[in-house]
Design brief:
This protein has a single domain, classed as Class II aldolase/adducin N-terminal domain (L-fuculose-1-phosphate Aldolase). Helices cover 31% and strands 26% of the residues. The chain contains six helices and eleven strands.
């Protein structure tokens, strides 16, 4: 199931665990935050260059069963419906496998779901995770905020373990913002909810954009 970063697909074994009907309030909150990020082009789809047609960025919130995250290949969609989300109910890093629920088995979780999972596992206070792309923003953050190793690829067990390392060895639990050196343009913000994660991300972004 693995592919190259250029193709933008998942690198783990997705295991469909059943159908879910998402609570409307949960998706309203996710869509409100995501649509703002889309307007800023922090979430979207590349329209030129080597990655043309590849979507980027994802967002998640903790749920009673695990966490709800945008599905793969949704970056280029301006508005998402229930069919574009999955609930991750189990992540097995050792087996590189993810159990998920969705409206259909074809709604596969985002390639970054193991990275999101590690934040939720590392800290019960984390209620939301936002992953965006922005080249200049990313360059400014590298080495200035907790930064993953350059030789660790996105969407892999290695990245999940790297997140755990940063959480234990750096000020990431307080800073709540990280850069992914091995995933060009990749930036992650976390918070107790989407409002806090969005504020942390956008406060830092405005400094770069101003």
């Amino acid at each position: 199931m693995s592919t190259s970063p250029k193709e933008g697909y998942f690198k783990f074994n997705p295991r469909f665990a059943g159908v879910i009907d998402f609570p409307p309030a949960c998706l309203e909150e996710l869509n409100r935050s995501r649509e703002h990020l889309v307007r800023l082009k922090l979430v979207g789809m590349y329209t030129e260059g080597e990655l043309k047609g590849v979507g980027y960025g994802n967002i998640s919130v903790r749920s009673p069963g695990g966490f709800v995250i945008t599905a793969t290949r949704t970056g280029g969609l301006p508005v998402l419906g229930p069919e574009h989300y999955t609930e991750i109910i189990k992540v097995d890093i050792a087996r590189n496998a993810v159990d998920f629920r969705a409206m259909t088995a074809a709604t596969v979780p985002s390639s970054e779901c193991m990275t999101h999972a590690m934040f939720y596992q590392a800290d019960p206070a984390v209620g939301a995770v936002i992953h965006v792309h922005h080249l200049e923003f990313w360059k400014r953050l590298l080495g200035r905020v907790p930064t993953t190793a350059r030789d660790v690829e996105y969407g892999t067990p290695g990245m999940a373990n790297e997140i755990l390392r940063l959480y234990r060895e750096t000020d990431l639990p307080c800073r709540k913002l990280a850069a992914m050196a091995g995933h060009e343009e990749g930036i992650i913000a976390i918070g107790r909810d989407l409002d806090e994660a969005s504020k942390i991300l956008l406060d830092a972004y405005r400094i770069v954009a101003s």
